Amino acid sequence: MIEEKELLLGLTNKEAEFRMKKFGPNELTKGKKKSPFMVFISQFNDLMIWVLLASTVISCFMGDTADAITIIIIVLINGILGFIQEYRTEKSLDALKSLAAPTCKVIRDGNMRVINAINLTVGDWVDLEAGDRVPADGILVDGNGLTVDESLLTGESVGVNKDTRDKHGNVYMGTTVLKGKGLMKVSTIGMGTEMGKIAGLLQNIEEEKSPLKDRLESLGKVLVFLCLGICAIVTVVGVARGNNLGDMFLLGVSLAVAAIPEGLPAIVTVSLALGVSRMLKRNALVRKLPAVETLGCTSVICSDKTGTLTQNSMTVKEIYIDNKIYNLDKGEKVRNEVFIKTLIYCNDCNYNLSEKNIDKALHGDPTETALVKAFFKDVQLLKTFISNKRRVFEVPFDSNRKMMSVIIRENGKETCYTKGAPEKVLDKCSYIVEDGRIKPLTSTKKKAILNCVDSMSNRALRCLAAAYKDGFLEKNDGLEKGLIFIGIVGSIDPPREEARDAVLQCKLAGIKPVMITGDHKNTAFAIAKALSICNSSDSVLTGDDIEALSDRELEREVEKARVFARVNPNHKLRIVKAFKKRGNIVAMTGDGVNDAPAIKEADIGISMGISGTDVTKEASSMILMDDNFTTIVAAVEEGRVIYDNIRKFIRYLLSCNLGEVLTMFLASIFYMPNPLTPIQILFVNLATDGLPAIALGVDPPDKDIMSQKPRDKKESIFARGLTEKIMVRGTLIGICTLMSFIIGQYLGFDLKTCRTIALCTLVMSQLIHVFECRSERHSIFEIKLFTNPYLLGAVLISISMIMCILYIPFFRDVFQTQALSLMNWGIVIFFSGIIATINSIYLYIKR
Ligand code: ATP
């Protein structure tokens, strides 16, 4: 009796809270995380920084205390900036992870609720169905044909049938429900579970590395050697000219610290993470960071129809029964009782019969709630209709079979009711009800029904056939055999209004939008046409067509196809593979447990936040929080923006660093005095490298970003002329800085003033160049300054910094600068502005 009561009510909220405190969270302890302090320390874990600090200490002993302190402070500030960046990135990624955390359906205080699995506790009742991941260890107390995949625990990939009566009734955390439904009572949670005992193994699953970050890291290594070589030359030449060895060593090391783009991979992570939070605002939750890079390359989007391209709000429009079509919109009514019984009994929607409003009383799959609403406007009548009926057996709906059946006991008699895709149900029918009498279903009659289905689905209706068999147990000749066909019901599911624009946007962006659906060919085509996905039925391929094609032939056919209808999840897998074989980067959506393999195979697997199952969510690299096609296109756009922005700051950082190195290198090979002191070099690094580069990472997109073709996935980040741009601009920055220094000397200014002019020219050229980096196609004069306030802010901070070291006497002493006169500024502005001006004229003439 107690069991019975608990079964209905579950734990009370209060009891659950008490138990959560007592037993702790339902989670597997994670591997150790770096503490904030360690994150801070790791900022200095760089060989060049150590060498710099060591040489600073040496110079300190030689009497240069002020210099040494300044260098240490600059290194510290740099470290703090790096720490803030890394810590914030880490935090926002953690927040994303908790959003993507698994959930479960638990009964508490008599209500079914979805909670984060971490809050589950011992004694909770959990509802399980196909696609769910079992959230803790427990015992199955109620269930219908529950099959569980326990391969994670046992390595055995065959599904295990669970039974409430015997020892097979145990279910284990981390296993997945393949089929059926059930209710489990939680017995063990967290580290106490079977999974907890082997948790150590799972902690070793590494987070996927971003391929771009990987490539930049290896590029970084090459650059390190290059920079070190140049710095060595600068040092040796300086010594050869009779400079002090210690001074020259410090100069070389400072140059190395400034010029080596050690922050590059880190900024890539920052900008990926920021992009991921932006995507979340647009309802796309990215589960795997590298997916962001791939998104921008997407060339085919394979989308489900129902709910993604359509509104998933079904309304029954037409019913075919007894050779006649009834149009419900015209007020025509169908009163065939057994037809209504089939559609209501063979239906998995949930009722809350205490509600008065029928819309609020029904929950579940819109295909099914629509059926109830078509016949019942009143909750009381519905209540009477379904009372005293017991479902003694069921074969749930499954997208492979495309039908479902139940056996209902009513007044001591058992009846089998079946509904599903018309051609599938008709295959199981031997009889038909006509004029209230049961007659054999001849092939002519079957043809007439299918013709009617054809015409209904041409009007974009999703069709379901209803059939039954009386006295099921007496006949006992097998379920779903020799059924009696009753009629067809056709529901409309209108396209999402915004989806049409998104489809057009895809086409403009060189992305193929493709619809994949379990629905009828005609229904699919009618919707696809309304959405401009295609306008010829030649672009429709059905599941049967796919069956008839070899993999090779399918590869050829997919190029033309825009709609795949009546497909099952297995076909989806073949479709992804075929598209990939043709060199496409495929994004593919899915919701059911059977879709997981296709989602895993796709370059970008997308699962549904609302209707998706745990298993598909876990297999996917992105979750659509609103199940909406438009969100996929938005995510692709963000993917492109992020990639573009990464190119922007790579271009900026590398050309600036090249400029710095060249200034020093050219001066040394031409036997000139050093244009900058070590501290000044470190200052340039601090003022120009950090904030402006990060601000470029959040730059708004170019207007025409979605009118470009998708980029090739194998394309290097330096492709499309980026290397040339960096080399040319870096060289010009170096030459102009040196020229400003030479002119200063030529005009007879003292060395300090000349150095200050060079320093300002170098910084200002970089701060101008950062705006140029915002676009690869437009010149600096065409870019709207105020669209990126972060960048404007960052540049203003950098300018204030340089003003401080020029005009505040204390800093002037520290950085060995001189307050510049107007004429000096003239030189600075000329040399820092000239390249951008010439470049703009060049871009203008080129266009
Ligand atoms: P997608 O979401 O991929 O666009 P879909 O939702 O249209 O596809 P399925 O859910 O696999 O595809 O449905 C395929 C067919 O199965 C439908 O056209 C319909 O005939 C039948 N069907 C759908 N839902 C049910 C149900 N609840 N009961 C019985 N038959 C159903």
Automatic annotation (TrEMBL):
Transmembrane segments: 37-59, 65-84, 222-242, 248-274, 649-672, 726-747, 791-810, 822-845
Residue ranges constituting the Cation-transporting P-type ATPase N-terminal domain according to the UniProt record: 3-64
Molecular function in Gene Ontology: ATP binding; ATP hydrolysis activity; P-type calcium transporter activity
Membrane topology: Multi-pass membrane protein
Principal localisation: membrane
InterPro entries reported in the protein's UniProt record: ATPase_P-typ_cation-transptr_C, ATPase_P-typ_cation-transptr_N, ATPase_P-typ_cyto_dom_N, ATPase_P-typ_P_site, ATPase_P-typ_TM_dom_sf, ATPase_P-typ_transduc_dom_A_sf, ATPase_P-type_domA, HAD-like_sf
Subcellular location field: Membrane
Organism: Clostridium paridis
Domain of life: Bacteria
Substrates-to-products reaction catalysed: Ca(2+)(in) + ATP + H2O = Ca(2+)(out) + ADP + phosphate + H(+)
E.C. designation(s): 7.2.2.10
Record key words, sorted: ATP-binding, Calcium, Calcium transport, Ion transport, Magnesium, Membrane, Nucleotide-binding, Translocase, Transmembrane, Transmembrane helix, Transport
Family: Belongs to the cation transport ATPase (P-type) (TC 3.A.3) family. Type IIA subfamily.
Protein name in the entry: P-type Ca(2+) transporter
Record's GO cellular component terms: membrane
